[in-house]
Amino acid sequence: MSPIKVMGFAALLALTNNTFASNEVNTESLSYDALLSSYQYDFEVNYFNIESQKQSLKMAYIYLKPAKENMPIVTLMHGKNFNADYWTTTAQYLQSLGFGVLIPDQIGFGKSSKPTDYQYSFAALAHHTQALMSSLNIQSSIVLGHSMGGMLASRFALMYPNTTTKLILLNPIGLENYLHYVEYKDTNFFYKNELNKTPEGVKKYQQKIIIMVSGTPHIQH
Question: CATH 3.30.565.10: does it fit domain 5-175+183-214?
């Protein structure tokens, strides 16, 4: 079993610094279906077929092969309120250094299938990602997870240590006991909060988070 190396903050900054560029557009008249069919990603999107929980699902992903021979693959795992496309500038930067880049839309996100009668778990998402990597003959990868993707990346590394050469966590959530800081709320509380969300509110939230991550707003399309 190969050891997993957790990269420090300086190394993380080297991979993510200046990766988000400003691209403001008017979003008031935009409308998308559940699979973001009319939303154009900056890279070609491919699909991986998955049979899971007696359902046939499609996992969207972007795969940029290494630009230099023998360079490793970096797998980028998105946060809860994002999809593969917001990694564009990061992917371009990594590829300019010679890395290969794999960016999945996890099941339930982006252009991937969004089953309603489905038991979502980080273990299941990690399993799907490993299956995708195997289909692409990716034997090992640096794994970088942002926000909720940090939880997924941690689970992936625990489940597949021989595949994970380095683990990078960027503003991860869920890795500490939040009951020390906030009061417990029933799931109905969060359900009502989700119902009250608006497109403009989601946009402002994404701008705020990305500014915290990179110091530069980046809202595409």
Answer: no
